[in-house]
């Protein structure tokens, strides 16, 4: 993009403007003088105080107050930064409908430039609510404070007389930091005018992202220093223009350019649901494509939901109707969760079709990209009854944050996620939406009616295989008991049929016989899809072998085409269910470990970029690793993988990594090694200010119980000591953090602990365990219905009641 094009985007209303100290240099304050920069102000105050050595602005301001008082400092600052006259180039900037303006300047130059053009503008400081983004007028966010708001109370709080580092921290730690990033992500262009090193530590605000750097321009004046050019060129283009010459360019383009009426449209990332205009029945292949490859045909979903098709295609689950009722009852936000392959995406399609019949305008946020935040901001201002479906919301944090900041009262949202990912992210989601709880719908278990539907569907399409001659009762029992009422297990029973197994073997052979590297890259892409780690082609190239991704032979390989989708700037698995089945049953564990290790190492190299660090954290997480490594040889593969990761720069002293390594060792029954790894995690956590040890403590409690369950001790004192350590942690966690299910999951292990040591425990010991169980039960009774119905909480309730039933003489 060239600078002239960026100016055109500004005239269209799609450019963010950031102004620094250099922008205001030609304005005059009420004493008719030019404005001082931060450094010049510090020097000026130092001279007033008689200082001979340089001092920071914060320190010299405090000294000035000691000598002359707050009132004198306020008067000095007001006369310095209240503007009496702006220059013609400033007035030009007030003619442009900037998406939003951010400034580190205290002065009111921007406000005067708008007023002189007859345009309203709202000055905002960091103390103000992020909800002000809803206000229609132009906005100027003053990061360091605004001179018109300066009082003795705001001095040193909202008004920041500080250095670059603290100024940057103030922004980073405020809600407006994320709004700035949202604005940059949604804008077509970004202009930094008059930026200097004193203004902000730019690397703390901007990502070194190719998507952003291509549209970002730094207006730095003629002949910038080599250091400035080097520092800024990582984040955008450095233009040797100043405020005056840029103003001339803007004036010239304003005279000839016709603004676009609207440059923000839906359709690339936010997709409109439309009712089907056709009515035809699916063929057998269409249904097989849905069940095995996850290819959803919206026309057939519409037919199934509306009843216009009499051929089974999707199961109209009771949860769809329950969700509609919740929306109609006024719930603004609902979370739908399930494990891999249990019908989350199909549920959203059915919900969308059903919601249209209830008068909703239905939209679906389908993926992430350079303008996805912009599309979300556009839809958030909905002025009609609108339902937005957000699949894999945990991978769409910028979009969710933008949605939370901009949404209208007409917009209702259903967020969907894998259960494990939601368990980690739900507190964050509640914080973003400013709510204490969000109703949840769990899709992991089929109802009896749903089981009957799947039984009939398997009959219709001949997928029972050698079970075809079973009686209806035996088939239903198989789906209920062997498949555990889970869609994923039903799909696995189909995948394990001889015909499908042979087909998948052929697919894998066609890849591996060509190149082991092809198979490793395929394993990487399958893993990312299974873990719902969204990457565009550029990010994927940074994680795996770029030269292979670009080879025509790779893209045209028959097996690769069977497994992967090549869509514009993305390569993803066609089916996460089949991808996981292949990884766990058909790929050598050495290849999987190599694939994961390579991606982790490459993400580590780029971990200064937040998106790559997030990917690395996901690749550290044991629950993710164990879900994709092959069943055969998994134990050794897990250890080899973590041994490889421990030497990465972002892992060596990372408490999260050592926690995951400890959990891996614990899961494998290596309890002593797990203790060592957990102690390492605690040690590194101590060096991180404010680090929350909740999960370390929770794992410590789990380790105490699991070791005693796996290897019961004959030493009653040792057994009760371990129990008491765990109980102390869990009682604290369910009391202070009852919204989270983790302590209840561990507390459920009281029951097997008691069973393993019943013979050596005294009546008093059993009484103590029963009291601990009753305490947990009381905490469960205090949970919301949605949290109390979490599967781990349900299991915990059952375990606690079992303990109390087995100790009937226990006093209440």
Walk me through what this model shows:
Helices cover 55% and strands 9% of the residues. It is α/β, with parallel strands linked by helices. The strands form 4 sheets. The protein has a 7-stranded parallel sheet with strand order 5-6-4-1-7-8-9, with helices on both faces. A 6-stranded mixed sheet has the order 10-12-13-14-11-15, sandwiched between helices. Helix 1 packs across helix 11 (243-256), helix 8 (175-186) crosses helix 17 (397-406) and helix 23 (516-530) crosses helix 28 (576-585). The longest helix is centred in the C-terminal third of the chain and has 21 residues, at 716-736.
Largest sheet: 7 strands, parallel
- Residues in β-strands, percent: 5-15%
Shape: globular
Euclidean distance between termini CA atoms:
73 Å
Strand order of the largest sheet: 5-6-4-1-7-8-9
Number of strands: 17
Topology:
Elements: H1 3-11, E1 15-19, E2 28-29, H2 38-48, H3 57-68, H4 70-81, E3 83-85, H5 88-93, E4 100-103, H6 109-116, E5 121-125, E6 138-142, H7 164-172, H8 175-186, E7 189-193, H9 210-213, E8 216-219, H10 226-233, E9 237-239, H11 243-256, E10 270-272, H12 284-293, H13 298-306, H14 318-328, E11 333-338, H15 344-357, E12 361-365, H16 372-380, E13 386-390, H17 397-406, E14 411-418, H18 419-433, E15 440-442, H19 448-460, H20 472-482, H21 487-495, H22 498-512, H23 516-530, H24 537-543, H25 546-549, H26 552-556, H27 558-563, E16 564-567, E17 570-573, H28 576-585, H29 589-605, H30 610-620, H31 622-628, H32 634-645, H33 655-667, H34 671-686, H35 694-710, H36 716-736, H37 742-747, H38 750-757, H39 763-781, H40 785-788, H41 791-805
Parallel strand pairs: 1-4, 1-7, 4-6, 5-6, 7-8, 8-9, 11-14, 11-15, 12-13, 13-14
Antiparallel strand pairs: 2-3, 10-12, 16-17
Helix pairs in contact: 1-11, 2-3, 3-4, 8-16, 8-17, 13-15, 14-15, 16-17, 19-20, 23-28, 23-29, 29-30, 29-32, 33-34, 33-35, 34-35, 35-36, 35-38, 36-39, 39-41
């Amino acid at each position: 993009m060239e600078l002239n094009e960026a100016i055109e985007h500004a005239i269209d209303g799609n450019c963010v403007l950031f102004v620094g100290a250099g922008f205001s240099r030609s304005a005059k304050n009420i004493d008719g003088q030019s404005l001082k920069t931060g450094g010049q102000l510090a020097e000026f105050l130092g001279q007033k105080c008689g200082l001979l050595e340089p001092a920071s602005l914060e320190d010299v301001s405090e000294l000035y107050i000691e000598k002359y008082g707050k009132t004198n400092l306020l008067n000095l600052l007001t006369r310095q930064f209240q503007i009496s006259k702006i220059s013609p180039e400033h007035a030009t900037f007030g003619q442009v409908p900037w998406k939003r303006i951010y400034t580190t300047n205290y002065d009111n130059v921007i406000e005067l430039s708008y007023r002189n053009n007859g345009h309203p503008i709202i000055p905002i400081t960091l103390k103000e609510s992020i909800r002000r983004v809803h206000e229609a007028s132009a906005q100027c966010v003053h990061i360091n404070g605004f001179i018109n708001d300066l009082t003795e109370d705001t001095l040193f709080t909202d008004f920041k007389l500080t250095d670059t580092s603290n100024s940057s921290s103030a922004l980073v730690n405020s809600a407006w930091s994320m709004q700035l990033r949202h604005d940059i992500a949604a804008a077509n262009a970004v202009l930094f005018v008059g930026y200097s090193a004193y203004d902000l530590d730019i690397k703390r605000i901007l990502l070194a992202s190719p998507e952003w750097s291509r549209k970002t321009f730094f207006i730095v004046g003629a002949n910038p220093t080599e250091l400035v050019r080097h520092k800024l060129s990582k984040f955008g283009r450095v233009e040797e223009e100043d405020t005056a010459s840029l103003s001339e360019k803007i004036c010239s383009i304003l005279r000839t350019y016709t603004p676009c009426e609207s440059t923000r449209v839906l359709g690339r990332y936010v997709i409109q649901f439309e009712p089907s205009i056709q009515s035809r029945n699916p063929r057998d292949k269409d249904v097989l494509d849905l069940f095995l490859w996850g290819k959803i045909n919206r026309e057939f979903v519409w037919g199934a939901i509306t009843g216009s098709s009499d051929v089974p295609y999707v199961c109209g689950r009771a949860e769809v109707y329950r969700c509609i009722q919740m929306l109609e009852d006024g719930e603004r936000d609902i979370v739908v969760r399930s494990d891999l392959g249990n019908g989350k995406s199909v549920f959203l399609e059915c919900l969308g079709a059903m919601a249209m019949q209830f008068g909703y305008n239905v939209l679906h946020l389908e993926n992430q990209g350079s303008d996805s935040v912009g599309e979300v901001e556009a839809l958030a201002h909905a002025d009609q009854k609108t339902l937005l479906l957000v699949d894999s919301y945990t991978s769409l944090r910028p979009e969710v944050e933008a949605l939370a900041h901009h949404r209208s009262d007409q917009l209702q949202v259903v967020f969907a996620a894998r259960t494990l990912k939601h368990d980690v992210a739900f507190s964050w989601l509640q914080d973003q939406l400013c709510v204490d709880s969000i109703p949840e719908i769990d899709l992991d278990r089929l109802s009896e009616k749903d089981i009957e539907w799947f039984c009939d569907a398997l009959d219709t399409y001949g997928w029972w295989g050698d079970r075809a001659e079973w009686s209806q009762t035996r088939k239903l029992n198989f789906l209920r008991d062997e498949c555990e009422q889970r869609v994923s297990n039903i799909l696995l029973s189909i995948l394990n049929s001889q015909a499908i197994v042979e087909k998948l073997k052929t697919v894998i052979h066609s890849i591996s016989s060509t190149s082991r590297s092809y198979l490793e890259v395929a394993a990487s892409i399958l893993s990312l899809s299974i873990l719902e780690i969204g990457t565009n082609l550029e990010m994927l190239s940074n994680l795996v072998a770029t030269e292979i991704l670009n080879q025509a032979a790779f893209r045209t390989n028959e097996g690769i085409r069977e497994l992967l989708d090549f869509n514009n700037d993305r390569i993803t698995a066609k089916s996460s269910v089949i991808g996981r089945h292949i990884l766990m049953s058909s790929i050598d564990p050495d290849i999987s470990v190599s694939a994961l290790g390579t991606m982790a190492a490459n993400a580590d190299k780029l971990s200064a970029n937040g998106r790559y660090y997030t990917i690395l954290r996901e690749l550290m997480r044991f629950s993710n690793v164990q879900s994709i490594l092959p069943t055969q040889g998994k134990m050794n593969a897990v250890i080899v993988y973590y041994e490889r990761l421990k030497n990465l720069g972002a892992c060596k002293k990372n408490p999260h990594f050592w926690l995951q390594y400890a959990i891996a060792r614990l899961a494998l029954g290596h309890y002593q090694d797990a203790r060592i790894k957990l102690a390492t995690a605690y040690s590194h956590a101590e060096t991180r200010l404010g680090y929350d040890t909740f999960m370390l403590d929770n794992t410590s409690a789990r380790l105490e119980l699991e070791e005693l369950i796996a290897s019961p001790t004959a030493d009653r004192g040792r057994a009760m000591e371990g129990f008491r350590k765990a109980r102390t942690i869990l009682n604290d966690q369910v009391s202070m953090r009852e919204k989270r299910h983790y302590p209840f999951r561990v507390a459920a292990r009281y029951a097997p602990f008691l069973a393993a040591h019943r013979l050596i425990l005294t009546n008093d010991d059993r009484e103590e365990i029963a009291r601990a169980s009753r305490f947990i039960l009381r905490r469960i009774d205090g949970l919301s219905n949605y949290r109390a119905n979490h599967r781990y909480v349900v299991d915990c309730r059952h375990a606690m009641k079992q303990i109390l039933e087995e100790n009937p003489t226990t006093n209440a």
